[in-house]
């Protein structure tokens, strides 16, 4: 590995840094975008069952908010009804929408950075290729003794060009694949939270005090 890095020259170091950052972000998002941490399958039914007769206590709502991302969205709706018994349906929907936007923002954390690495890695590889081509052209210049080019410099320039191109693609392709995968997971979770909120709105409106006509 060290011999490859030496042959690739100094342009390989930005790509190595990008690969380390991309790997760390992929591992971090794989951990935090698990369904058990975002939207447990039975959570909505459990919340509906607990609130079938009356609204839960504040400590139960706090535990729900700490349970998962979906739990924080559902807890926002419960807190709105508890804080304002005369809440309108539009206000309750707005509370769910605000909590959902914050939840989606949390799920999308670091995805832009990963997408930037996927887009920048091929360009960094191309930059290394240009540096290698400069080395190749420099090797063709006549030496002090009047002889032809420098074979060692020529080989080094070719190594820089090829290794940086290959390494740039090796970093960009997995980063782009995981970026697309994570975007799909976020969209899936967002749809699930929207459907859960739509189910909770009429359920919670049963507890709202109707204003006299």
Automatic annotation (TrEMBL):
The chain crosses the membrane at residues 12-31, 110-134, 154-179. Its main location: membrane. GO terms for biological process: protein import. Signal peptide: none annotated. One of its GO terms (cellular component) is plasma membrane. InterPro entries: ExbB/TolQ_transport (IPR050790), MotA_ExbB_proton_chnl (IPR002898). It is a multi-pass membrane protein. Residues 67-194 form the MotA/TolQ/ExbB proton channel domain. It comes from the Bacteria. Pfam families: MotA_ExbB (PF01618). Keywords: Cell membrane, Membrane, Protein transport, Transmembrane, Transmembrane helix, Transport. It is found in: Cell membrane; Membrane. Belongs to the exbB/tolQ family. This is MotA/TolQ/ExbB proton channel family protein. The lineage of its organism: Bacteria, Pseudomonadati, Pseudomonadota, Betaproteobacteria, Burkholderiales.
């Amino acid at each position: 590995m060290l011999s490859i890095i030496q042959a690739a020259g100094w342009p390989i170091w930005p790509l190595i840094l990008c690969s380390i950052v991309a790997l760390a972000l992929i591992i971090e998002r794989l951990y935090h975008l698990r369904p058990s941490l975002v939207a447990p399958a039975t959570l909505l039914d459990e919340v509906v069952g607990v609130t079938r007769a009356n609204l839960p206590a504040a400590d139960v709502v706090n535990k729900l908010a700490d349970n998962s991302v979906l739990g924080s969205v559902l807890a926002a709706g419960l807190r709105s009804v508890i804080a304002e018994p005369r809440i309108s349906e539009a206000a309750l929907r707005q509370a769910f929408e605000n909590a959902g936007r914050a939840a989606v923002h949390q799920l999308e954390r670091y995805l832009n950075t990963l997408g930037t690495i996927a887009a920048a890695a091929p360009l960094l590889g191309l930059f290394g290729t240009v540096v290698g081509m400069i080395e190749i052209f420099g090797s063709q210049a006549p030496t002090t003794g009047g002889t032809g080019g420098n074979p060692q410099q020529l080989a080094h320039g070719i190594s820089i060009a090829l290794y940086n191109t290959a390494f740039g693609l090796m970093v960009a392709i997995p980063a782009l694949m995981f970026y697309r995968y994570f975007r799909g997971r976020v969209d899936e979770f967002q749809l699930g939270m929207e459907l859960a909120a739509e189910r909770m709105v009429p359920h919670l409106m049963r507890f709202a005090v109707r204003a006299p006509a």
